[in-house]
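Below: protein 1.
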Amino acid sequence: MRAVVIDGSGAFRLKQRADPVAGPDQVAVRVHAAGLNAADLQQARGDYPAPPGWPTDIPGLEIAGEVEQVGADVTGMSVGDRVMALVGGGGHAERIVVPADLLLPLPAGSSWREAAGFPEAFSTAWDALVVQAGVRAGDRVLVTGAAGGVGTAMVQVAAASGAHVVASVRRTELHDRVKELAPAGSTVEVVAPGQEGGRAPYDIVVELVGGEECLRRVELLRTRGKILVVGVQGGTVAPLRMFDLMLARAQLIGTTIRGRSHAEKALLAATVRTSVVPLLAEGRLRVPVDSAFPLDGYSDAYARLAGPGKFGKVVMEL
């Protein structure tokens, strides 16, 4: 099979690798499309290694494809099933083996492109907002960096939960497209970063950008509010006025999925399978695809991922 490989210098290369073989509790999937994420670039820089049990030099955290081989101990799954999954690595290849309990069914009518951008973004959004922050109808939620892959998922999950969503988007040409993410019966207000304070206070602030000033948003919280730190591409170190956190009796929550145990990931997959995939099937959630590239166009795909002005997900089609 062909696979994108991170070489010793941190560069991406397209190489041939042996086809993986499914173990007893695994399924081999022929990948039709794969999502790109900031973690792929971080892994290439040596900052975010793959967890044990996953390919150490093949990036890719989310895939969509067809089942080609079913392990001896796997039940309820057949060759030809259309599936998608959040994986620990190895997704940017023509084939991958995945533990069966991480797989999600692909709703009828969903394209490979959309499915490839669903698992990481919406698993992250649901876990952070619903499971950890306990978002409720009527909450005011600020999502920073709301035009990206995870940002567009956060906006939709918050709105579908009945929250009033304020999406912070630097590029004004994307504001109308972010507004259109609002599920039926909900609204999304879009502002530039400098306008966030005018819509405060917030019950939940979703931090997807990072940078030195990001934790100043504690000043925008309502009493007992929460800041969810999910992305830090703009910088990994930020000062915090702890007295502001104390006065607000606020919570600061950091989260990531890749480094969790298999049991935790399987539990999250089960939650997404029963609670989030049905919303996608009903059309209440959608996956905006910014751009799609063939596997041999991997260099352009990663360049687009690293560049500014994206709306939604960057994917590769195999």
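Below: protein 2.
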Amino acid sequence: MPTTRAHEQQVRAARSGRAVDWHSARRRAHAEGRPLPGRPVELAAAAGLVLAEDLVSRVAQPAFDTSAMDGYAVAGRGPWTVLGEVRAGRQWPGCLRPGEAVAISTGAPVPAGARAVLPVEDTSRSGDEVRGLDGCAPEPGRHIRRTGENSPAGALLADSGSVVSPAMLGLAAAAGHDDLVVRPRPRVRLLITGDELVTAGPGGAGRVRDALGPTLPPLVAGLGGDLVETAHVQDSFAALAAAVGSGAASEIVLVTGSTSVGVTDHLHRLLDGLGARAVVDGVTCRPGHPQLLAALGSRRWLIGLPGNPYAAIVAAHTLLAPLLAGLGGRPVPPLRRTAVAGVPPAVDGHTLLVPAAWDGDHLAVVPGHRPSDLRGVARADVLAVIDRETRDTTVAVLSL
């Protein structure tokens, strides 16, 4: 049924009364995202994910006594007779006796009986005889990395809840792991509504080029989601209902547009019909007020973003980012306070989010941040969060 202007205003006023402040919206979204069950993934696919189990070493590191230098493994006092050489990946058979040595490479197993390793630059060699330059007996164990020196078998290497870094992948591999048990990336379906949108070429004659289709997939990935489907949906209740109810399996359905109370905004009516549980229905921020988060059932949510591009980006950082973080076992994306030049005045009763970029060693607000304007955020490094409590140029910022 078409909505009248008066009806729209009544509905808007009612929903405005349910809106929450920006900080509360982020906390609610994060609290919704109870971590997904862990599953094993290959090391190559684990970077950036969160450990769902403690990482424990399967082997001692090093797994054998190994040389820390290129030089000579020596037994007893010198001079030493060089019997041969041992390189990485090889082993010396038998045991060295006093006065004997083998040339050795960094990382090679140290022969049994060796007292120490002499670096090649600290020796002189003539034929099969090698001497230390200082003439002294080497300190026992010098330049030998002992078995388990870094960590014994069974040692705790990283706690559950740790983010898997590139270095942790190397640590896991050295500890004998081929995969890690991690929280998987939450799956996201993206539904873009708007009969006025075109996906190629310029707009014109009432048509507008879709800016969110190119923007949101990398943003979803950067925030920790796995985008499994993107679809453009007609501005009708039936089309939206069909799109929300079908498609690839996902934890999150992300809808752009249709979040307000106009004649083509069907999302609230659809959620009411589905019996969805409202988590956030409107946020007192600018831009991005008409955003929402609703639970569709067990471990399935719908996030509605405004149709205006910059407002949609703000809403994604408000609701999608913390929900993905919670599902992935990560903390809510942090805010930090820093000085920002060009901060506009706070908006009474609303949090204002404006793009800012580094200019040398300080941040400055970037012009161009109307709800439909991407010029500012395209050049920005952070969002400056301006609350009514802001009294100076030191504000909270959120990394983009």
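Residues 5-14 have pLDDT under 50 and may be disordered.
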